[in-house]
Amino acid sequence: MSLLSKLKEAVVCLKAGRVTLPYPAQTQPVPPRFRGRPIFDAAKCIGCAGCANNCPAREILVFDVCQEVRILKYLGRRCTYCGRCADVCPEKAITMSHEFENATNSIGDIQQKLDLFMSTCQRCGRCFKEPSPLEQLKLKGYRFDDLANERWIFRSKAYLTEEAAVDDVKIELD
Amino acid sequence: MLKNLCQKMFGRSLWVYHANSGGCNGCDIEVLNVLTPYYDAERFGIKLVGSPRHADVMLCQGPAMRSTAKALQRAYEAMPAPKLVFAIGSCACGGGIWFDSYSVLGPVEKLIPVNYYIPGCPPRPEAIIYGVAVALDLVDKKTAPVQFKQTELPIPRYHPADLEGQGEMVVYKKIEPV
Ligand code: SF4
Ligand code: SF4
Ligand code: SF4
Question: Is residue B71 situated within a structural domain?
C-alpha cells in the first residue's frame, strides 16, 4: 500500500515536469503595470522640484548653486519605486521604467544627477510660505539640500542679503 | 581582490543567513520566494542556514534600527571569514521611507560593511537572483551613475543682437517657427 502511494507520488512528480525558471539565462517579461527604477528625462525637466517635495523617501535632493543653476540629485538608494514623483511631474519628465536589475556593489551607481538651467521668475519669485508676509518678502526661495551627506533640509531659510539685487529696493533685515 | 577571493572560496556554494533587523517582512517573503522551486536558488548552491556561524553570506533586510543594532553586529561578528553582506531592499540600502524616524539609524552599512546592494521595495525575486549572479560574476552589473549637464540655456532669450531684417519684417532668429 505504502509502496503504491510512493509510486503514485513519483508519477505525479514526473507529470508536473520542470517548473524552475532558468533566470539569468532566460527572463520572463514583467507585468505591464510593474514599476521599476524611475528614469529622469533631463530634456523635459523644468526643475520645479515637485518630485522632491512629494517623494515619501526624501530621495530627490535639490541644490541651488545660484539663481540660474539648480542641481537635482536622485539618490536611488532608498527609493521605494512608488511612482509618486512620476505622478506629480507636470512635464512627464519621469518615467517608471521596467528596470529592476539594479544590483550593484557600489551604491553610487544608481544615482542620477541633473544640472539644470533655471530662468529668473518675472514675478516676485518668493512662492514659499513664511510666518508673516514681511518675512516672505525677504525669502529667496532657494533650496540647499545636503548633497554630501544625502540629507533633505526640511525648510530652506535663505534670505536676501543687505545688498539687494535691485539697487533702489532696500529691504530691512532684522 | 574581493572578487578573486569570492571565486576561490565560494566556488561551489553560498550558505546564506537571513537577518531581518526591522523591515516590514516584504523583503523576507521575496527572499523565501527565491528559495522556492520556481526560482530555485539551489541551482547556484545557495542554501538557507539557521545560524550565522554556518553562513558565508548575510542577507540583510530592514534598516539599522536602534533596538536591533547590537544583535545585527553580533550576528555579523559570528560569521566566519570570508564573509559577504547583501543589503536587500531600499530599507537596508538607504534606510527606506523611515530613514528619518526616531528609531531608525539609517542604512545597515552604518553598522556592518555591505558588499552588494539590491534596491527595491521589495526587490523582485529575479532582482535578488541577479544580485547573487553579479556577486558570483555570472553576469555584469547593468547600472552606472547618470549625470546630465546642460551646456546652453534651453529657453530662447530675447537679445537685440539676434534680430535681423528680412525684407520689410524684423525677425527674431532664435524663435522656432510654429
Ligand atoms: S518612486 Fe517614490 S520613492 Fe522613488 S523617487 Fe519617486 S517618489 Fe521617491
Ligand atoms: S517634477 Fe518633473 S519637472 Fe519638476 S523637478 Fe521633478 S522631474 Fe523636473
Ligand atoms: S525595503 Fe520595502 S519591502 Fe523591504 S523591508 Fe523595507 S519597506 Fe519592507
Answer: yes
Is residue B115 within 8 angstroms of chain A, CB to CB? Answer: yes
Selected residue of B97, B104, B116 to mutate for chain A interface (largest A Cβ count, 10 A): B97
A78: domain range? 30-157
Closest to B57 measured CA to CA, from B126, B105, B128: B128
Ligand with smallest separation from the Cα of B99 = 3
Per-residue pLDDT of chain B (178 residues; tens, 9 = 90+): 666 666 655 566 788 898 888 888 889 999 888 888 888 888 888 888 888 898 888 999 989 888 888 999 999 999 988 888 999 999 998 888 888 788 888 888 888 999 999 998 889 888 888 888 888 877 778 877 888 887 766 665 566 667 777 777 776 666 655 5
Residues B146-164 pLDDT 10s: 888 877 666 655 666 677 7
How many angstroms separate the alpha carbon of residue A150 from the centre of ligand 2?
19
Q: Residue A40: its chain B contacts at CB < 8 A?
A: 146, 148
Counting one residue from chain A and one from chain B, the pairs whose CB atoms sit within 8 A come to 142
Q: How many domains does chain B have?
A: 1
Q: Do residue B146 and residue A75 have CB atoms under 8 angstroms apart? A: no
Measured between CB atoms, which of B134, B148, B153 is closest to A115? Answer: B148
Number of separate domains in chain A? 1
Query: Nearest CA to CA, how far is B37 from chain A (Å)?
Result: 6
In a domain, A4, yes or no: no
For B80-106, give one letter per residue: b (16+ CB within 10 A) or e. Answer: eeebbbbbbbbbbbbbbbbbeeeebbb
Measured from the Cα of A88, ligand 2's closest atom is 1
Q: Collapsing DSSP states into helix, strand and coil, what is residue A71?
A: strand
Q: At what angle do helices B26-34 and B125-135 cross, to 10 degrees?
A: 70
- For the stretch B54-82, pLDDT in tens is 888 899 998 988 888 899 999 999 998 88
Is residue B38 included in any domain, yes or no? yes
CA distance B83 to B115: 9
Range of the domain at B72: 11-135
CATH number of the domain enclosing A101: 3.30.70
Establish if B143 belongs to a structural domain: no
Asked if the Cβ–Cβ distance from B149 to A27 is below 8 Å, we say no
List, in order, residues 6 or more apart from A53 with CB less than 8 Å away.
none
pLDDT at B117: 92
The position carrying cell 561578528 is B77
Q: Is the pTM of this model over 0.90?
A: no
Q: Which atom, in ligand 1's list, is nearest to the CA of A54?
A: 7
